[in-house]
Amino acid sequence: MTVQNWSENILLADFQDDPAFSDDMASLADQVAANPNLDVVLNFAQVNYLNSSNIARLLKLRKTVCVNNSRKLRICGVNTHVWGVFLVTGLEKVFEFTDDVAMGLTSVQIEE
Predict the structure, then answer these.
(1) CATH class of 2-110
(2) pLDDT of residue 98
(3) What residues does each domain of the chain span?
């Protein structure tokens, strides 16, 4: 995973498939817990599948970022197969999505 401090308050993370996904998600969760003033943009362009463990980690990250810290979380670059997982699980209504990284970064900045 590549994590960039895109700005003072925005963290941009590029994810890949497991096993890296799980390790990277844990690392990202630690960073967000350490700094509650971060909006997070997750780039899923290289993610080709999600399992139940990945989904649980995403939900936990969402709770930390959006509920506990009152910040924004965007998922972008989701391919058709992974989008199907979000649709089947009903999570397309829980998370906010954008087409690409540029739109994700713009959406968290505009809604300040």
Answers:
(1) alpha beta
(2) 96
(3) 2-110
